[in-house]
Sequence to fold (515 residues):
Amino acid sequence: MTDLYTEKVMDHFRNPRNMGEIKNADGFGKVGNPKCGDVMAIYIKVKDERIIDIKFKTFGCTAAIATSSILTEIVKGKTIDEALKITRDDVAKELGGLPAIKLHCSNLAADALKEAIKDYKKKKK
Amino acid sequence: MKNIYMDYAATTPVDKEVLKDMLPYFDKIYGNASSIHSFGIDSFNAVEEARERIGKLLNASPEEIVFTSGGTESDNLAIKGVAYQNKNKKKTKGYQIITSDVEHPAVLETCRYLEKDGFKVKYLPVDKYGLINLDDFERAISKDTFLVTIMYANNEIGTIEPMKEIGKITNENNILFHTDAVQAICKTPIDVVKMNIDLLSISSHKIYGPKGCGALYIRKGTKIQTIQHGGGHEYGLRSSTHNTPGIVGLGKACELGRERLEKDSLHMKKLRDILIKKIINNIEESYLNGHPEKRLVNNAHLRFTGIEGESLNMMLDDKGIAAATGSACSSKKLQASHVLLAIGLKPEEAHGSLRLSLGRWSTEEEVTYVSEVLPGIVEKLRKMSPLWNR
Fold:
């Protein structure tokens, strides 16, 4: 854990991967609250229970954008079951750690993903 | 890569002339200003010269200046020092303090501390520009009010409070008037006599002096007690061996600031107005926070719909621009700025704010560069934002 952003955080912040929206997404999840300064939206495209495409949109600080970006990299290609196992800690770890103060408030990407999967399952029924 | 500093309201570099004056006091004239030998006397004289220079800037006498470690300590000494002096008068006069919702934490937290200690504090609301309402203020005064502490100019949005009017009212009601002038000093003329100010806090590092030094003006005859006990330095009001190099630096910074007040102010005001105009004109849904005219000459405080200030600042930093924000994510408390909420902004609006503050060495090229770079960054962040669907 560090007080500063890691190089990897800065890389994902400067060059966010999979940023944008998916038209006719199979699942959509949005978490956070503009009041708190963080809102994350995740779009997923699913084929044969595998997430074949994922995109994000984030309003928030550097950490919020970086966690969203790296989550999409981790998730792409994973099955729904695998994706559901991803935790906030996994996301932070993948980034080489986050400043302590940012661990909770800005690390909502895994939650947004769970919401998107929930939405997908609901639509599938 | 560019290297543009637009965070002069956070701190300033030390002016070369200030540094030059300070240097001998580290290793050549190092005596304790309280010592009676020649080494001490040399330091003592330097401290007293600085006191005179600060007095001159404020239209105060040298003996009305007390040196401290900075703005926060000056605020603490002024408010706690006056409060504790008045504590015995609970039943007669003296129990209530009046302040505002937009004060610097050095004032707000001191007031909250005193509340726990039994004092009553009235926090005045402000309008959308950050100004207190003078009628509200007069109505808030009771026979128990002994101290009013209202900042001269706001450190975030740059709004300048009606000092002269407040001073008139406190004077008529025989109430002490303290102001935190840390941001205002050397940016606008301050006359403590004309404005009826009894106590005024300043800090050295905001006016091209060194960090770790400040001063409190205390009008002669003001009843105040120390909050730092020890050897009885500074007329018994602030014990601690004098920080001679710092004090010399503060004194020189005040002298330079006084001499250059008009020149510096005109320079910064011109750049500030260009900056604000270019940003507002070039970025849709961008707004100025604070008062359009009653504002510090060096302060441009803006907000942009749909984006968050910490990431905005980080992207500016990537372009070599140093700025500040009122976003929660940049604060250690993870709360949106109390100032921006007090002027009626929604939390999400407060998060999207940016403070650009100019200084003596800011240039038009820098202002142009910032106003050219900013629209692209705002656009990039808005493209990422789920709150921006235009």
Summary: The radius of gyration of chain B is 22 Å.
